[in-house]
């Protein structure tokens, strides 16, 4: 008799004979597949170097496994190098409980290739710039690679619009510098933002694997530099304190008439117009067109004389008498009973022609300068107006004012932020002015009392300006 024993055998294998990992993966888990046995099988393993060196590029943390899990540490050495490989092999296996025979299968060795990877990121996820900064550089941080890395970028609008508020000048970079043009549009507006994103990166040498990191998008906020008086027409210049000038502006609405000055002896209204074709602010700005002046002669309360200054044909009309200014300067002298018109010298060699209006008593003087199809209005003397004078300009005439560190003006208890900038007129081009900054940059908000719509009147010579505090006027 012969007893034949059929031995129960089972195999252990790796699931694959090759595996690629990243240099930055840290500790990885490799599975040994145990296909049978009592459940108490031990598998012995060993490692052998290829181009990757034990202790420098990797470490085999598990040399004996009972559950099939093999831990391998991948060392990130931050050295620019090509992909490297090493082998892990199953050397033997034993079932610790039964007499089952464990054999090492055909997939007894796995080759592990360490791909050399690196990241590209922005240094930060947000950045604030000024509208006047021009072209700026934003850095993309490239943390490795062969030195021949290309990074692709794209831009997306937020409240800032490509082509109007900014331009992405660099869409592909190799040195980490991204050029962005910030467009200074001189439009009174709030802060605006847009995004620049890293879309992809490639190591052109084909050595390393480039990945886009977590800081793949940067939000850029454009802080407005458009104070309410910083170059937007119509802008108003009012004398305050010892030689200082207070400037501000209001975009308003074209084809409406606004009250500028309302006092007992004089009323000034202005018709707002769009700038002429070709002006780069045409879509947004409104300028001063015709100006209507109602003046009451001293001692003749029943008599109001009409003066019209027209930008369209550069003329001055007093009563029914019209004078064409053309390229001359004209002086209007208003005394206690008449308006004297004096034609001055030719201004053909200057940038503009003008009308100077002087009220002898009470004292008031201002200049109206013709510029293309509109006018600028600049006050030189306001000492004769009353404390109750109002209007878009009048509320600042002959008022108590205090300048605080060239950053604020306190006018009748109202604190208005200002910035000292050049005066945008043609008479004192090198002079400076305290330009007021509107809240949000719009419509003189926070500068004038109430809203700009409160100052709309019916006609160019309307005496009826009703702001709530000054109905008696």
Describe it.
0% of the residues lie in helices and 50% in strands. The strands form 6 sheets. An 11-stranded mixed beta sheet has the order 30-29-31-32-33-21-22-37-36-35-34, with no helix packed on it. A 7-stranded antiparallel beta sheet has the order 28-27-26-25-24-23-38, with no helix packed on it. It is mainly beta and 473 residues long.
Structural class: mainly beta
Task: Enumerate how many helices there are, as a single number.
Answer: 0
- What is the terminal separation in angstroms? 135 Å
The overall average pLDDT, rounded, is: 81
What's the quaternary structure here? single chain
Q: Strand fraction band?
A: over 45%
Topology:
Elements: E1 9-14, E2 18-22, E3 27-34, E4 41-49, E5 58-60, E6 64-65, E7 69-74, E8 84-95, E9 101-104, E10 109-115, E11 117-122, E12 126-130, E13 135-142, E14 149-157, E15 166-168, E16 172-173, E17 177-182, E18 192-203, E19 209-212, E20 217-223, E21 235-240, E22 244-249, E23 257-262, E24 266-273, E25 287-296, E26 304-310, E27 315-318, E28 321-324, E29 328-334, E30 339-346, E31 353-359, E32 364-371, E33 374-381, E34 401-404, E35 408-411, E36 414-422, E37 432-436, E38 456-457
Parallel strand pairs: 1-9, 2-10, 11-19, 12-20, 21-33, 22-37, 29-31
Antiparallel strand pairs: 1-3, 3-7, 4-6, 4-8, 5-7, 8-10, 11-13, 13-17, 14-16, 14-18, 15-17, 18-20, 21-22, 23-24, 23-38, 24-25, 25-26, 26-27, 27-28, 29-30, 31-32, 32-33, 34-35, 35-36, 36-37
